């Protein structure tokens, strides 16, 4: 009987602790959209955290540039045609100087198809945008 009371108290304490711990991490919407195109992969990311940046790995290789709050989209060019494994990780933090609770969040992990690049269409795209 005594053990069941202790177990009930521990379970109740753990549940109360989780109630306070989960909303802080679950409140942020941390997402990344990844699309393949002709010779390129476009990554756009967003987070509700005040401080964040995103980076992408294509087939395990770290890519530049990075996305961040003031520039949430980047394009990786000169990507070979075919299926590529892409992972986007958001580095997030809180606080005035972005030093509170820094951590990484996997925002996308999947395959993206890249088509053959067409220099004429690329030229038209760059002239219109």
Automatic annotation (TrEMBL):
It comes from the Bacteria. The keyword Signal applies. Keywords: Signal. Residues 1-28 form the signal peptide. This is DUF4399 domain-containing protein. It comes from Nocardia halotolerans.
